[in-house]
Fold:
Amino acid sequence: MENILFLLGIDEDQQLDFQQRFPQAHFTFTDKTSVTKEQLAEATIIIGNPPVGLLSDQLTNLKWLQLNSAGYDEYLQPGVLPPQTILSNARGTYGLTVSEHALSLCLMLMRKLHLYLRDQLSHDWAREGRVKSVFGSRVGVVGLGDIGRNVATRFYSLGATVIGYDIDSEIQLEAVAEVRPMATIGETVADLDVLILCAPATAETHHLVDTSLLNQAKADLILINVGRGDLVDTPALIAHMEKNSDFMAALDVIDPEPLPKDSPYWDVHNLVLTPHVAGGFHLDKTKELFLEIAAGNLKAFFTEPAALQNVIRRDS
Amino acid sequence: MENILFLLGIDEDQQLDFQQRFPQAHFTFTDKTSVTKEQLAEATIIIGNPPVGLLSDQLTNLKWLQLNSAGYDEYLQPGVLPPQTILSNARGTYGLTVSEHALSLCLMLMRKLHLYLRDQLSHDWAREGRVKSVFGSRVGVVGLGDIGRNVATRFYSLGATVIGYDIDSEIQLEAVAEVRPMATIGETVADLDVLILCAPATAETHHLVDTSLLNQAKADLILINVGRGDLVDTPALIAHMEKNSDFMAALDVIDPEPLPKDSPYWDVHNLVLTPHVAGGFHLDKTKELFLEIAAGNLKAFFTEPAALQNVIRRDS
Structure:
C-alpha cells in the first residue's frame, strides 16, 4: 500500500475526495511546517514541497515527489532525493493567477491608477493626463512556458500584438505573432511598448534587463516582472527610471526579497511593487488547478505510470 | 461652400488631412473655449461640442452638428438648435478607452492592488491574502451600447461569463451569455460576482443601484461604475460598504462631481475613485477613432447624406 503524504493545506471535503478516489492508498494530511522526519521516511509518495533540509538520499521508501511549485531547482541538488525517486512539478497551476496579475499591473500603469490612488488619498479630484491601451500595443513576453503562454493569450485576446522571446525560438502559438531567440532581446527590444518577464532564473536570463537593454528600449516602455528578481539588474533599472520619467515598471519579484523597509526603491516615480504574490495560492482556483494535476498524476501512477505528467529529468 | 467649424484641438497634420480630403469645404479650427458667436453663426457644419450657452435656434446657417461625445441630452433642449439642424453623436469612439478603464479598475480590486499600493507607500512587504480572477467570474454588464459591448467582449475574452442588462432584452451578442431586462436586475443580481454600469442616465437607470439591490447582491460583489453617477444612490452604497467589508467598488463617475475635498467618500475601505477619466481624449487612439467617424460622416454628407451615421432623432 502506498503511503501518500500531503504537504499543503486542503479542506476536509478535498481530503475525503482524494481518499475516495484512491482507496488503495493511505493518506496523511499535514503541512510543511508541521511535517516530521518520521512521516517523510514512511512516505512512498509526497504531494507538496517538503523542506529541503529535511530530505536526504536515505529516504529509500520515496518513489515519487509531486511538487506544488513550478520551480524545482533545489530538489535537484545532490543528496536531496534518493536516485530512484521520480520528481514532477506543478506546471499548469500558476498560469492563470500570474497572468491576471501581470495584466492587472500593466493596466494599472497604463491607466495611471497608481497616480489616481495617490490623488484619492489626498482627496484630489485631479486629471493625470494621457493614458495608454493594451489594444494596439506591441507586447514582448520573455519565456513561453505555461505562465508566458497564459500572459500571451490574455494580451492577444485584448488586441495586443505579442512578440515572444524564448530559448526555443521554434515555438508556434496562435497568440504569438513572432518568437525571437532570447539572446536577441537587446537588439530587438526597441519596437516594444510593453515587456513582460515570465522566465525562470537561469544562466541565460541572469540580468537580462540591464543598462544596455534599457538604453535600446523606448523611453516610455512599460516593464513588468512576474518571473524572478534575478532577471533584472535592479540598480541599473532604478538609475534608468530616474533619468526617464516616462518609463514605468511594476515588479512582483525583485532582487533583493523581501525588500528592506529602508530601500529607496519603494519611492521611485512610476514604479509599482507587489510582494511576490502573483503566484502562490492567493487565488482559490489555483489550488483547484493544482489538485486536478495531482489527482491526474495519482491516477496515472496507479494505472499507467508512463503517463505521469510534468516529470523532471534528474539525469543531468 | 460649406463652412466647417472644428471645435476640438487636432494637430496640423490632422488639419491638413481634413483640408485635403474635403477641398470643397472651408475649415476653421478652434476650440470650445475660444469659439466666438460669429464663428458659430457662420458655420454650416460644426464638428465637436459647442457650449450650449452660445447656441440658439437662430443659427439659421447650421445644417449639421457632429458631436464628439456619446451623450447629447443638452442639445435636445428647446431653443438650443434650429429645427433643420441634423444632430449626430460620437457613438463608437469611447468603447475602447472606457472598457479598458473598467477592466483595469476591476483587476485592481480583484488583485488588491489598491491595498498593495498603500503598503508600498508605507514601505511594507506585506501579503494581503486572497485574490479573485476575471476567469470564471460571472460579470453583469448594465447597458449594451457601444461601451457595454466593448466591456462584455473584453471580459468574455478573459474567460468570464457575461450577463447583459438592457432595455432591449432581445439583443444577441457572442460575448453575452444571457441578456436580461433592465428592470429585473434587483431580482437577478444575486448570481453575479461583478456588476459593471455602462448605461446613460435615464429615468430607467436613475438610482438603479440602491439599498434594495445591494441587499440582494453577494456580500463580496465588485461594483464598477463607468456610466453616470446618477445610476448609483451614493449614500446607500457607502452605508452598505461600511457594513460589508468584503464588498468592493470602483467609481469613475460619482454623484456629486467633482467630489468635494471634504467628502468622507474619499476614505471608504475598498472604494477606489477616479475623476471621470475613463472616456475623454486621454487615450490618443480615442481621438483617432473620433476623427475616423467625423471623416466618414463628412464624406457621407457630401456624397450620400442618407448614409450619415449616429444621427439622433430630434422629433420627440
